[in-house]
Design brief:
Elements (H helix, E strand, L loop, with lengths): L1 E7 L6 H14 L3 E7 L3 H4 L5 E4 L7 H7 L6 E3 L2 H5 L3 H12 L1
Parallel strand pairs: 1-2, 1-3, 3-4
Length: 100
């Protein structure tokens, strides 16, 4: 099973998006684990993830996160419009494409 990790400032703003992504994945029969964490927890949580998506508000941290994960897994910033509209289907598709 693949694991998608969404990271934001406090881990709260992505919680709604995570729930919607889980619903979309379930409807499509995609077996995936999706979690949201605050950026402060990244150093202890990243190793079990297959991809990391950053909330737009911390997009400036992308290079730092790539260094933290030693470029072992994909790291991408969630599109601001998709994030704002809670477009779970699009965000899930991007995450799965990055894992391939």
């Amino acid at each position: 099973m693949k694991k998608i990790l969404l990271v934001c400032n406090a881990g709260m703003s992505t919680s709604m998006l995570v729930q919607k992504m889980k619903k979309v994945a379930g409807e499509k029969g995609i077996e995936v684990t999706i979690d949201a964490i605050p950026s402060t927890d990244l150093s202890t949580c990243w190793e079990s993830a297959d991809v990391i998506l950053l909330g737009p508000q911390i997009g400036f941290m992308k290079d730092s996160v790539k260094n933290t994960v030693e470029n072992k897994i994909p790291v991408e910033v969630i599109n601001t419009i998709d994030y704002g509209r809670m477009n779970a289907d699009k965000v899930l598709t991007v995450a799965l494409d990055l894992i391939k």
